[in-house]
Design brief:
By secondary structure, this protein is of the alpha+beta class. It has two domains: about 5-105 and about 190-240, Gyrase A, domain 2 (2-Layer Sandwich); about 125-185, no CATH class. The protein has helices at about 35-45, 55-65, 85-90, 150-170, 175-180, 195-205, 215-230, 230-240; strands spanning about 5-10, 15-25, 75-85, 100-105, 125, 135-140, 190-195. Strands 1-2-3-7-4 form a five-stranded antiparallel β-sheet. Strand 1 and strand 2 form a beta hairpin. Helix 1 (about 35-45) packs across helix 2, helix 6 (about 195-205) packs antiparallel against helix 7 and helix 7 (about 215-230) crosses helix 8 (about 230-240).
Amino acid sequence: MSAGYILRDAVLDKGFVELIDIMPREIPEGAESRDIVIVNAARVSYSGESKGVESDRALLRYLWKHKHTSPFEQVIFKFRIKAPILVWWQMDRHRTLKYSRQNRQSGRYTEYEAEEYYIPCGWRLQDSENKQGSGSGFVENFSVLDGASVTEVYERCFLECLSWYKQALEDGIAREQARLFLPAFALYHTTVLNVDAWNLTHFLRLRTDEKAQWEIQQYAYAMEAQFALMLPWVYACYRQWEE
């Protein structure tokens, strides 16, 4: 824990997903994995105890298959996530995270810097049938700008906005208003959030789907990998009944 996180995965060009804590933090003494906390939570109803790995895993599979959700809510993940606003826009409206607790970086307290914006690795075409999704092709250049690349124009646009933002700060405009000069959807923000294991799997189910926006898929994949390492029994159930 000296680095401030348990697990860390880089996402997109400047983002990351860090698992900074989990309850329980340590695997209970004599147990094979943290999954035993879920099994014990189910058995507490009749003052039961572990009956061995095979019996414990069988009970956990039963709980998952029959959607006995409350024992899975006993394990809490705490993530620190750095993502552009276009990702947070979707995460914030996600119903499975509505009971999570979030604290987010604020432009009222900190200034934005040149490196704090998302540069896509490619500019996807609009899907011809799905009004909210993108297609499989890419746009490389703006036709009206003598073939100038989309990325070149995008970066030029952002950096010009950033320069006006900095000037506004120098002229004494409050940070909470100066940020209006910036193209908000591109900005990275760092957030700390808590979510229980059951609601996390529901989030992953929807956001790793191929129809989800590509950027949020990348964050979901990173969270899924960390989840799999922390709760291998639950993850095995998740994969079995999702495939």
